[in-house]
Amino acid sequence: MTEETIPIIRPVLGEAEADAARAAILSGWVAQGPRVAEFEREFARTVGAEDAIAMSSCTTALHAALLVADIQPGDDVIVPSLSFIATANVVRQAGANPVFADVDEVTQNLTPATIEAVWTPRTRAVIVVHQCGVPADLEPIRAMTARTGARLIEDSACAIGSSYRGAPIGAGAELAAFSFHPRKLITTGEGGMLVTSRPDWAARARRLREHGMDLSASERHRSGGVIVERYMETGFNYRMTDVQAAIGLVQLTRLDGILERRRALAARYQLLLSRVDGMRTITDPPDALTNFQSFWVVPPHDWPHREKLMARLWDAGISSRRGIMAAHLEPAYSGHDHAPLPVTEDLSMRSLILPLHHDMTDAEQDRVVEVLFSARTVSGL
Ligand SMILES: *Cc1c(COP(=O)(O)O)cnc(C)c1O
Q1: Is the pLDDT at 239 greater than 90, yes or no?
Q2: pTM for the whole structure
Q3: Coil, strand, or helix at residue 253?
Q4: Mean of the per-residue pLDDT values of the chain
Q5: What angle, 0 to 180 degrees and rounded to 10, lies between the N-to-C axes of helices 362-375 and 306-315?
Q6: For 182-204, what is each residue's pLDDT tens digit?
Q7: Where are the alpha helices (H) located in 195-241, listed in sequence order?
Q8: Active-site residue, 184 included
Q9: CA–CA separation, 312 vs 301, rounded Å?
Q10: Hey, whose CA ends up nearest to atom 8 of ligand 1?
Q11: CB within 8 Å of 12: residues ≥ 6 apart
Q12: Which helix (H) or strand (E) holds 244?
């Protein structure tokens, strides 16, 4: 990569995060402690959730979500194949069976119809993904799972700051998991957050996070006297560190600014790209707002193959990525039974993600669009 390469995304990190990490280190408390507790409170407030439990990643938060929802070996869990592979993997990690459902072409999300099409008598949960930050149409999906007694878990890895019918993603969620990987809007290096509206599930998630222990290290520390912990079940080490939480607390204060900037840049992309007939882009669904975590486009059918477009962009110093992957096409899922997934396969083959980062200039954006348009005439389909 040259100096001038336009990155796909760049974390918004500065002196304030460095100072916060330094303060955590000098405090002597670097593992899960008071800063994690504070980060949980601030995060819950930000997304309007009852409770938030910090985890080592969104993947571990999703795994914990399946366990607190009492998903058992032999259960079916409906997931989109069109997602980062962790969405499907966590179902297997819980011993259950991922059942792939197709997605809507416009939102790239599950819909009641695509869920219904693969529903089985063993379906005990649905993991709906708010793909690239675009909120799934939750109301009818909630009605479906409520009617059948299945659980609804929201893979909100990409969706911090997105909103659905006026409420932030996470508000009112039975279970939702967020990611703080640097590829998302705010970051703690690695890290995740589980939110839930059920106090019993929150308590169990805290216990699973910490080896199944009946009290946390900070509770033991605070108690002063001698208390001996008990291990109530086989748990995990899914904890976040206080150094990460210190960074996360600063990142939360930047969220509104990051959102505003991403939405402005996305609107500009949409306008520039609308000059080509048939060029589809990520957009807000009715009644919801996306945070534009990734700006995807699907070029018209008669354009050169996606990899050709990506190569042309790369040659011009512009990073791009293939669009969202399809888990069922990966070796890890070869031989895994699934229904036809035509929309998933089409999107995973044709969509690509353009750079969109906080400090991107109008001139850089113009250049991306110009190079993309020029790639239309690349020889050889
Ligand atoms: C990034 C991502 C994850 C994984 O998040 P980690 O914090 O890296 O574990 C899961 N699901 C989706 C949809 C993602 O985009």
Answers
A1: yes
A2: 0.96
A3: helix
A4: 96
A5: 130
A6: 999 999 999 999 999 999 999 99
A7: 199-209, 217-223
A8: yes
A9: 18
A10: 181
A11: 186, 251, 254, 258, 358
A12: helix 242-273
